[in-house]
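Task card 7
Instruction: Convert sequence to structure tokens.
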Amino acid sequence: GGPKVYDISKYLDDHPGGAEVMLDVAGQDADEFFEDIGHSKDAREELKKYYIGEYKMDEAAIAKMKADAEKAAQKGSGGSSMIFILVALVAIAFGYYKTQMA
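Output:
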């Protein structure tokens, strides 16, 4: 297992904050960014629609990520419950590219 991966390429134009904010964190762990915004329960439900799988990571990388998340949470920069979110750059870039070339 590993962090969750979402293909939000079809949601870019509908995102209330605009596509740019999502593209800025594409391809990286967006947990902290997502939590800092203070997304609503509805936003979290909407996100579930775009779940496509988990990013494959070895156990050492997962352990390091969890440790980093715990340190961030202790400093007060994490949410009350950490959700592992990794936006798939390839899926977003490809989807966005397709919409621009159509």
